[in-house]
Input
Amino acid sequence: MKLHEYQSKQLFAEHGVPIPRGEVAETPAQVRAIAEQLGGSVAVKSQVLVGGRGKAGGIRLAKSPEEAEQLAAAILELEINGLPVRKVLVDEASEIVTEIYLGVTNDRTQGTPVIIASAEGGIEIEEVARDHPEKIVRAWVDPLIGLRDYQARNLAAAMELPRQHWGEFSRMARGLFDTYWSLDATLAEINPLVITREEKLLALDGKIVLDDNALYRHPELEELRDLDEEAPSEREARGHGLSYVKLDGNIGCLVNGAGLAMATMDVIKGLGGEPANFLDIGGGADAEKVAAAIQIILSDPDVHAMMFNIFGGITRCDEVARGILMALEEVSREVYLVTRLVGTNEELGRRILAEAKMDTASSLVEAAEMVIAASKVSVSE
Ligand code: GDP
Ligand code: MN
Output
């Protein structure tokens, strides 16, 4: 779950990271009132959960409350990467001297959090990594100890930050790490962390990605979810307790079990097909859940063929077969479908499908070959 800039910065501030004074608004009139309170000179920043806000005209600087109101009116009309701007953050403008990158994420190979910094702040860290990898410095954090002061100072030294800022930088790094750690985040990022003309350090932009699987430990964070910003299919899937991730291919996949779903996608890909999604209906999926899953897969217009791969342990194969038939009754789109059913009540399940004149397969490879062939026919039509 991604958080907005204004939400991320608020959480940083709660952990001792200094941020500019500012407030969120939804109308130009509100923006004007906030700008008046902040003294006139402000940054008006679109709050959308996609990158490239600046390039799209979604971040503007205003010298007066009137100008802020005008700019806000324009920004609130924008659509950035397909998402309409509904909110803007109005921040007191800063006079920037230096822009730094500072982020924390998981290093999966090391199995620990890693804190990443670069004197090349303000631009995407992926770009820095590509063009100037030597400008990125890292420190690995022992989760039992936390970020040590000397580690933060080493980062400051490696970036050649003036020595008078090392103490403040180190406090910010620890605040950022504490935010990341205490919220079970997978990413916490300040880009840019700026040094202002008054020699103050501030988190000018903020980004937090929370681990959905740890959200149950933070019920208060669930309220920060912005339903307007989620893909409707993913929201729908979550509502039904399904794990769904949309991909770019044209073969819809419905599988029970995350591991089996991954294996299914690998086999399809390995045999020359392109999966359109990851979807795990989980254990004990009943007819209604199967029906919801089919609807979600078919709501993707790229899907030309579907494959169901069900290992019936807790989920009984006859239940699944009935779910498939029930769902197909409600679906108007005709796409090819093959089902591989094995496990509890598999014969009954296959008989139900065969009676409805549907294709079944007993092996994963056989099913994958059938669905790939069908997906290619549909594509070339
Ligand atoms: P992003 O492009 O979506 O990452 O948005 P940021 O919040 O990082 O802003 C992009 C750039 O706009 C920053 O790197 C700054 O150079 C500039 N910017 C943002 N806020 C201010 C501000 O208050 N004052 C000034 N002078 N520049 C700002
Ligand atoms: Mn940024």
The chain has a mean pLDDT of 92. The domain at 96-222 is CATH 3.30.470.20 (D-amino Acid Aminotransferase; Chain A, domain 1). Residues 273 and 381 are 17 Å apart (CA to CA).
